[in-house]
Amino acid sequence: MPLLVQHPAYFSKSRLKSDLVAHNVALPPAKSKKEVYVELYLKHIDQRSDFSSDEEDLVQDVTVENPVVAEEPDPRDLTDDDLKAKLLEHGVKAGPILASTRAVYEKKLRKLLQSDRHDRVNGAEKGVLYSDSEEEEESEQDEDAESGSEGKSQTVEQLEEQENSQNGDFTYPQCFLLSSRLHVPASRNREPDSKGNALKSSARSLSQNSWIPVGISRSSSVDRCSGVGSVVPPGSQSVSSQAFSITQMVEEMESQRALSTSSNTEGEVNGSNVQEHWPQSDRLDMPVVDEYYTPKASPYNQTMKEPLKDTFKDLLPDNDITPTRIYATCRRPIKGAAGRPVQYAYPETPASPITLERREVERHLVPIHIQIVVFLIVACLLYLIYDYAEDNSLGPFVSL
Amino acid sequence: MSSTSQKHRDFVAEPMGEKSVMALAGIGEVLGKRLEDKGFDKAYVVLGQFLVLKKDEELFRDWLKDTCGANSKQQGDCCGCLKEWCDAFL
Asked: Which superkingdom heads the taxonomic lineage of this protein's source (chain B) (predicted)?
């Protein structure tokens, strides 16, 4: 209930006195008029909270009540219509508020008011929480993206290195040369750097992987490599880097080769017109290797392409050899298919984890041939025993 | 008809007429007595309450709980029973 507002003028003198004393206000002379007390009261208690407390009391009461009124109107105090209106505010279409239904509706209103209060409190908290979480999520996503891209680039490089090492057995430096040429434009495509930068970057990575080309050049047989490069799909930058260090090896190798075309590759590798040749090679090679070109070129396919170079040469010796010796074959060649004999040892295929598991299990299991032999032996033994049982003589055993 | 009791099926099978409040599914002797004390002595009175609450399941459950102290299962049974009866006959 709101306090009745009373102007200090209506207070009794004694009350004014006591109030002034309570607020440490110097009392006027004892026999001063009430008006003096009133003035003092108004003056001092006006400055303090009390007078304003009157107002504040009013205000407070009002404010206290207002929130109460606004947030917590006791459903019991509401009229039927008010209760219905309040429920409607919360989206509840109430039926007739009768004696029997009133209690239920009051309960419902209380529940709604409580949930409102909770929402308001939680909303403020959640706002802060969400903003933090968003930032965290964003930062996490950024970190993940960065780490992912870094990881990818690393794995790609690792894969390339592995493949290159694998290629060492039967691949030829020129392949790397050509692949490098292919990669250079690819790297350019990826990086917005200028041609020079791309070459520089590849050269830098070249120095890192220089050991690979050395190994390859020594191990590979010169005669096989015809200087024909397979179209290496834009993928590995490290391979491109290797090409430049291989140039020296290639020079040596090509000096031994009878093929004259190899010299062209060198010139082109050293040149900076790789990107120009790239589209040309595409155009030239497409009719030749159209059937073999698959758009999805994985770095692994490089290894598969090298063995084919010879066969291609055999089949299409008269075709104009493209400057880049790029033959687009991304598909893994079928062993011994289409009349082409299996010339080279194919590296082990990548085995899925399931295959690996199966192989391991099979290693521990008895091979099937041995199982069959054992079965036959056991069968023979049983037959002999049966014979012995039938004849009940040592005849069959005597023969043994 | 996976989880309805025999009482439920019996009630929903025909117009309730003058059936006692204990014929409702979920309302046994104890709850029925309490309801009768409050004045709900026939099933149709409880039906009336259900309809006045605009067939709102939640409100009716609350009312049942307040009036006779039914637990959650009993509330659900009674409410479902009346609902189905209304669907069939109202």
From this structure: Eukaryota
